[in-house]
Amino acid sequence: KAGVTQTPRYLIKTRGQQVTLSCSPISGHRSVSWYQQTPGQGLQFLFEYFSETQRNKGNFPGRFSGRQFSNSRSEMNVSTLELGDSALYLCASSLGLRTSTDTQYFGPGTRLTVL
Amino acid sequence: SQQGEEDPQALSIQEGENATMNCSYKTSINNLQWYRQNSGRGLVHLILIRSNEREKHSGRLRVTLDTSKKSSSLLITASRAADTASYFCATVRDSNYQLIWGAGTKLIIKP
Predict the structure, then answer these.
(1) What mean pLDDT is predicted for residues B89-96?
(2) What is the mean pLDDT of residues B91-111?
(3) Which residue of B has its CA nearest to A58?
(4) Mind spelling out the 3-state secondary structure of chain A?
(5) Smallest Cα–Cα separation from A19: which of A103, A77, A87, A86?
(6) What is the DSSP pairing of strand B105-110 with strand B10-14?
(7) Which percentage of chain B shows pLDDT scores above 90?
(8) Do B73 and B20 meet the contact criterion of CB atoms below 8 Å apart?
(9) Taking CB atoms and an 8 Å cutoff, what residues of chain A touch B36?
(10) How far is A66 from A54, CA to CA, in rounded Å?
């Protein structure tokens, strides 16, 4: 079975732009979560989706949004990019209803650099 | 905010020795999870231990959970060079089911 894939792997944007990151979960997995990892704040939960519905959202501003499609693929969008949005964005999928109570499988991440 | 705090922040041991990492947290939890992250394999789930469990094993890994002390430990026995990585604990509260991560322990296994 193919693992979780994320595209693109690397991205460079400038302040004020917007960006869309994509995540394809493991086949059969319907739960997807997104995390941000920075040297300063560490790993932080962004949001969680199950069957196209956002089930949970972390403490991030409204510039961060996401969605899940009927095939369980997910996208996250960051609008009006700030320098502090530079981070590794990780996507994880799991078989169960909630990624947080099940084994999560992580993708390799998208490294976003904001200049 | 970080719920879990790992201790030590960094650990360097000889190959073949055992490595123990600790995690403390502040509020009651649904479960606690341990992860490993290295540049080669990314972030990998190791063990999930639920609040009503006290110990779990997986291969060379042993995780204990003491809910009265709000702490957990991860023991890696007979360490190998491939165990060199950062190890994170993450807790999940019943109130919001969000994964709250610790800052991690950097483990270096010397050959």
Answers:
(1) 88
(2) 91
(3) B98
(4) CCCCEEECCEEEECCCCCEEEEEECCCCCCEEEEEEEECCCEEEEEEEEECCEEEEECCCCCCEEEEECCCCCEEEEECCCCHHHCEEEEEEEECCCCHHHCCCEECCCEEEEEC
(5) A77
(6) parallel
(7) 80
(8) yes
(9) none
(10) 8
Under an 8 A CB cutoff, do A101 and B44 touch? no
List pLDDT tens digits, range A3-22.
999 999 999 999 999 999 99
CA distances from A11 to A67, B40, B45 (A): 20, 20, 26
pLDDT on residue B40: 78
Q: And the tokens for A94?
A: 């799991």
Region of poorest pLDDT, from A46-50, B5-9, B24-28, B77-81: B5-9
pLDDT given at position B3: 60
Nearest CA among A94, A42, A48, A89 for reference residue B3: A42
